[in-house]
Please model this.
Amino acid sequence: MAQPPSEARSPSERRPDQASPSGRQGQGRVRIKGTRKGLAITLDEGDWQELLRELDNRLGQAVRFFAGSQVNLRCGRGDISQQDLQEVLAVLARHNVELASLETRSRLVAEAAQALGIRLALPEAPAAPLEPRTPPEEWSEGVLVHRTVRSGQSIRHPGHVVIVGDVNPGAEIIAGGDVVVWGRLLGVVQAGALDNNQAIICALELRPTQLRIGTYIAKSPDDSRRKRVQPEVASVLDGQIVAQPWTSR
Model:
């Protein structure tokens, strides 16, 4: 993906329904994040049908990332009925997502969940803050893959993904956090799949067939215009995906 400075910035394409390019989506009433326990969806207060539409939209923006995954639903509100939960299950099923468990402090919501056979999970008790730091529920463990990812293989993870080996054409890497490839990256790659436009993608040879960061997408330039192979890091700068030399600084 190395290019002369004048061509390092390839214009990104954005879907018309997406938020401004200045930051992350997902700052509404439906929050999706990777945690140490996996993916968690939090539904805040608001009109229930609007929440369902927002959930449907969020899942639809990263179909390949969510498909086949299991999620934990966190409900702070206490007015969710059995029918409401059935509607949530229908939205998840439409995107091939399975509800693994539900966290609630409401007895009525818990009873509605049990009536549907939904497993209950105990909400995490908030720890007393010792110093300013990132809350534990926002941490997300990374995964280390020590092999070549071959055509037809897919790796999806809610946190960071580090690959020691090549990513061949036809392979797919989708991460909720950053992607680091200690080798050649020639397949499809997406970092910041949970609408994180601050994620980065690094590789010793950055030549993907398609590259996504958060809500942005770009394609690798024509190989005939490459001058030399060098380690590169891709990130979103000034509203577009930019590939720059990956240095030690």
Q: What stands out?
A: Residues 37-124 form a domain with the Alpha-Beta Plaits fold (CATH 3.30.70.260). The radius of gyration is 20 Å. Residues 25 and 173 are 21 Å apart (CA to CA). Confidence is low (pLDDT under 50) at residues 1-27, 127-139.
